[in-house]
């Protein structure tokens, strides 16, 4: 069981050294300065969407960067001969980036909006988003070898992730959006700022959690295919 | 001039090979056109919907939406070239250049002009295709030139300060917020609006608003912006040169 804490410590060191925390702090400060100009009712609408959009970078793109670097240095292939299992490797990435996102988002919200929100659904929404985005990011990026191959297609991948925001801002409506995995954490983030019916909160928690397991399985499978077997590396 | 031609002839193929290996150039052509078409068809449809549902007139914000592109296209180009530099840094191409007859000045000049040229071409292509607002060819060319230095600015920012790909993403996140202030400035009246002038991204965007409002003084904003961007490029170039020297 000491393998996972070791992996987490290693990931935290790597992320700190590569400026992840510094970048998050800088973005939080700039956003707070800008958001303080806005009235509370605008913030209540904007903050859940903003937190979700910001998490795309914190989780999806940061995982992509880490995996590409580990691939370039050969340390990803080296993991195959260590006792660390693919599931633990992925769990460590999710835990560390979820924590980074949680601290950054809490700072932004408390400093710009104040304490008048419910932290529990907010934290649950962040944790679920981090898990889904990190695993999806890993599955997508592990097929690529360089950033330049990955950069433009990634914009399409993240556009797919952001579809529920269309419904959120009332641009496209329909029950179909509730099938989208990211709709679940988005409902939770919304519930932190506005009264949301209890059944919607229950949907957010259950449906979001329901998606984590197949995404994790997909991640482990991709690890086996593209890292262990080195299949189809272009 | 001879030096510049030599630099392009020496480095062009390396970049082109890098681009062939990475389907970058294809994307640089496809993505802006795709984006422009999404704007051309998507935005009016969205406007009709907002009009019907909320009685909200989006067409009043078309100028703001399109001014976004004035900064987006050079920044996007700069980030892509910046990541190309980081890929070259990681695989040792930059180090290998030191033993070629190519002069450092020639290399740096090439690194400045290439992203600028790409950014100008993209801007000239995207605005007419997107077609939400009318920009005459003359003013459009001036806008494209006035915002072009943002491309090498972002490319060198990544090249000079990021040690590797992962740091590149962290830095990309941090510099991404520079994108927001010019848009917010739209809702802030002068004199407070001038505070946004600290951001190099503000000036070309502001020039676009002035030009669209029929102001004849818009080239002044472009000049101030270009001068400011050039000023910021100097220390970045120095630092990137030092990084190149290892």
Structure description:
The complex is a heterodimer of chains A (234) and B (246). Chain A has 234 residues and is mainly α. Chain A is globular. Chain A is built from ten helices and no strands. Chain A has one domain (3-232). In chain A, 76% of the residues lie in helices and 0% in strands. In chain A, helix 6 (119-141) packs parallel to helix 10. Chain A has helices at residues 3-17, 20-35, 40-73, 75-78, 86-112, 119-141, 147-161, 164-168, 183-191, 198-228. The longest helix of chain A is centred in the first third of the chain and has 34 residues, at 40-73. Chain B is built from eleven helices and no strands. In chain B, helix 1 (2-21) packs across helix 5 (104-130), helix 2 runs parallel beside helix 5 and helix 3 (62-91) runs antiparallel to helix 10. In chain B, 38% of the residues are buried. Chain B has 246 residues and is mainly alpha-helical. Chain B is elongated. The A-B interface holds A 14, 18-20, 22-24, 26-27, 30-31, 34, 37, 57-58, 61-62, 64-66, 68-69, 72, 146-149, 151-152, 155, 170-171 and B 18, 21-24, 27, 30-31, 46, 49-50, 53-54, 79-80, 83-84, 86-87, 90-91, 163-174, 176-177, 180-181, 184, 188. Chain A: The chain crosses the membrane at residues 20-39, 45-69, 94-116, 122-144, 156-181, 201-220. Chain A: Keywords: Membrane, Transmembrane, Transmembrane helix. Chain A: InterPro entries: FLQE3_permease.
């Amino acid at each position: 069981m000491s393998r996972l804490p070791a992996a987490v410590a290693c990931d935290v060191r790597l992320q700190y050294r590569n400026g992840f925390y510094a970048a998050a702090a800088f973005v939080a400060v700039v956003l707070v300065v800008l958001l303080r100009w806005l009235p509370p009712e605008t913030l209540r609408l904007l903050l859940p969407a903003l937190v979700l959009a910001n998490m795309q970078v914190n989780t999806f793109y940061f995982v992509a960067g880490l995996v590409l670097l580990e691939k370039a240095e050969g340390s990803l292939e080296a993991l195959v001969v260590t006792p660390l299992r693919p599931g633990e490797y992925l769990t460590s990435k999710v835990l560390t980036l979820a924590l980074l996102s949680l601290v950054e988002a809490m700072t932004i919200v408390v400093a710009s909006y104040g304490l008048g929100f419910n932290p529990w659904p907010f934290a649950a929404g962040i944790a679920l988003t981090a898990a889904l985005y990190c695993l999806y990011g890993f599955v997508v990026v592990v097929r690529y070898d360089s950033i330049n191959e990955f950069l433009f297609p990634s914009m399409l991948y993240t556009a797919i992730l952001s579809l529920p925001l269309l419904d959120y801002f009332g641009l496209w409506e329909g029950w179909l959006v509730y099938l989208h995995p990211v709709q679940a954490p988005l409902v939770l983030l919304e519930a932190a700022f506005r009264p949301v019916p209890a059944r919607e909160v229950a949907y957010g928690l259950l449906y979001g959690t329901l998606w984590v397991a197949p995404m994790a399985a997909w991640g482990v499978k991709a690890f086996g295919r593209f890292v262990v077997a080195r299949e189809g590396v272009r | 001039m001879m030096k510049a031609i030599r630099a392009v002839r020496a480095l062009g193929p390396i970049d082109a090979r890098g681009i062939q290996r990475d389907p970058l150039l294809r994307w640089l052509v496809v993505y802006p056109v795709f984006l422009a078409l999404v704007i051309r068809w998507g935005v009016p449809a969205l406007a009709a919907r907002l009009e019907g549902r909320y009685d909200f007139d989006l067409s009043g914000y078309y100028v703001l939406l399109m001014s976004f592109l004035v900064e987006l296209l050079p920044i996007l180009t700069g980030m892509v070239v910046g990541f190309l530099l980081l890929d070259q840094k990681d695989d040792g191409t930059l180090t290998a250049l030191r033993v070629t007859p190519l002069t450092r000045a020639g290399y740096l000049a090439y690194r400045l002009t290439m992203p600028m040229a790409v950014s100008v071409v993209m801007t000239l292509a995207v605005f007419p295709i997107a077609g939400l607002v009318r920009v005459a060819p003359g003013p459009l060319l001036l806008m494209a030139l006035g915002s072009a230095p943002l491309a090498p600015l972002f490319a060198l920012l990544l090249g000079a300060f990021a040690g590797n790909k992962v740091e590149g993403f962290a830095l990309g996140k941090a510099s991404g917020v520079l994108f927001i202030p010019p848009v917010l400035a739209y809702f802030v009246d002068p004199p407070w609006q001038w505070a946004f002038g600290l951001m190099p991204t503000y000036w070309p965007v502001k020039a676009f608003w002035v030009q669209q409002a029929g102001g004849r003084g818009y080239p002044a904003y472009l000049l101030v912006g270009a001068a400011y961007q050039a000023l910021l490029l100097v220390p970045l170039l120095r630092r990137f040169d030092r990084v190149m020297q290892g």
